Amino acid sequence: MYRRPTGTEDLLPNQQPAWRFVVSTAEDTAARFGYGRIDTPTFEETALFVRGVGEGTDLIEQETYTFEDRGGSKLTLRSEGTAPAMRAYLQDGLQSAPTPVRLYYVTSIFRYDRPQRGRLREHHQFGSEAIGEADGAMDVETISMLASFYRNVGLRSVALQLNSIGDALCRPAYVELLKRYYRPHLDEVCTNCRVRFEKNPLRLLDCKEDRCQPIIAQAPKPAEHLCSGCRDHFERVQRLLTALGQPFTLNDRLVRGLGYYTRTVYEFYGTREGAQAALGGGGRYDGLIEELGGKSTPAVGFGCGLERVLLTLREEGHETMAAPGIDAYVCHVGSEAQSWALQVAGRLRDHGLRVVTTPSDRRVPAQLRQAEHYRARYALIVGEEEARTHTLSLRSMATREERRNLSLESVTQLLLSSVPDPQ
User: Fold this and answer.
1) How many domains does the chain have?
2) Looking at the structure, do residues 286 and 361 belong to the same domain, yes or no?
3) Which of helix, strand or coil describes residue 63?
4) Phi first, then psi: what are they for 5, rounded to 5°?
5) Residue 382 in contact with residue 341, Cβ under 8 Å?
6) Closest by Cα among 310, 160, 342 to 244
7) pLDDT by residue (tens digit) across 246-298?
8) Could you tell me the CATH number of the domain that includes residue 394?
């Protein structure tokens, strides 16, 4: 028996309503903030991620799905959403659009990582990019949009953590200070931190290993070594969030995992404790477009894992949404009645109704059990007499009340007049 690949999931019919609710809420929230949808290819040139994300990051070193196609091109499945969006911004002429350019996406992400609850090797992300505005108010807008999404989807308890990691002017000096602090402790830290020390020192602050916690606790803090520009920017972000009534906590260990971040970084956490409590986050990446070959252009955005949102909704006790039932199940008695039953089903569907019919001869009780399985509002029964006169018998599945010798037109109007409002 074939099985799905490790770290992937099937999205079954009974799971679709909750999934569509979360996706449509993301789309609606982005539209309310004036963001337009962008969809990029499932794979990109590998160099885009290496250059944009950073060669020393865990994502590039360990987690991408990379392959060579028949033409010899080295390609990578989409491992994050920002670099492809920035590539599209440069390639497709979005630089000429009024700034800031506001983009969002709901897309699949592929990472070869240890599968976790709410984080799969193929997972889905709601992300945004705001390009062309350096003011801290733009950071606050993306934070507000992600906070609004969590509220709109129904999460009751979501906490925001905030930090600043400086920019190209002040971060190099901080990184050297951090390395000087860590150098005497390299024999005490975990193996991964020894690698981070050489390739991505900021990630030293993000280690979750117990043995590294006492060392992290005494490490110099990024926000205490900002240049005046970064400090002013960070203070403005905090003032605006306070003015909006958005609570936040400063976390001097928050650095994010991708190499392109500058200045503001943030994450939202749910009610669960532990490493997997993070729901999503983002920050500013003012140097990324220039790194990809464009002019120096500020940008800020976020990424939010949708599977983790669904998991948190379930953990908070939200009721599982049921798949919508159908409007009618058309039963037929005998092969001669089947032709009229198929015509009835087709005409009802042409009016936008959801209709199922039996493809083979079964006894009426068995067909009515199928109607219950589909949670049909009505069963339409076609026997030899109905087939001859082109009429229908109609049974309410809720009350079991039955009406006979109805015309197709009257049944159509009855079904249309009682269609429930979409949820």
Assistant:
1) 2
2) no
3) helix
4) -60, 150
5) yes
6) 160
7) 999 999 888 876 778 899 999 999 865 543 578 999 999 998 999 999 999 99
8) 3.40.50.800
